[in-house]
Amino acid sequence: MAKIGAVEINARVAVGPGLRHSQQLPKRDSPSLNWLRQSVGGELDFPWSSGIKMPSDLESYKLIVHCGACMINRREMLSRMMAASAAEVPMVN
């Protein structure tokens, strides 16, 4: 929660990097994303992604909301967690 509290209004937040391209991404007005906006106190920039790769510019994000970890294997999830850690970007599920 402390990491989410450090996210500022209009910050870039990656959403959905674990979902495959054929699956539907979370809706922009989902309860979870509305809660995140409320916690931050304003609007956020959600450049949506899906597929087998994490965004290549992780350093430009302030938070990663990782959905779909159940759709990838443990090794891939650990790799994504390490990439987020190396970029010093907190990741939540």
Any key phrases for this structure?
single chain, 93 residues, alpha/beta, Rossmann fold, three-stranded parallel sheet, globular
CATH architecture: 3-Layer(aba) Sandwich
Query: How does the helix and strand content classify structurally?
Result: alpha/beta
Distinct helical segment count:
3
Low-pLDDT residue spans: none
- Element order, helices and strands? HEHEHE
CATH fold call: Rossmann fold
What's the mean pLDDT score?
81
> How much helix is in the residues?
25-40%
The best one-word shape is globular
Give, in spatial order, the strands making up the sheet with the most strands: 1-2-3
Total E-strand runs: 3
How far apart lie the N and C ends? 12 Å
Strand residue percentage: 5-15%
Number of domains: 1
Main sheet record: 3 strands, parallel
Radius of gyration from the CA trace?
13 Å
- CATH C-level class: Alpha Beta
Describe the structure in your own words.
The chain has helices at 2-5, 31-40, 74-86; strands spanning 13-15, 63-65, 91-92. By secondary structure, the chain is α/β, with parallel strands linked by helices. The protein has one domain (2-92): Rossmann fold (3-Layer(aba) Sandwich). The protein has a 3-stranded parallel β-sheet with strand order 1-2-3. It is globular. The two termini are 12 Å apart. The model has no long low-confidence stretch (mean pLDDT 81).
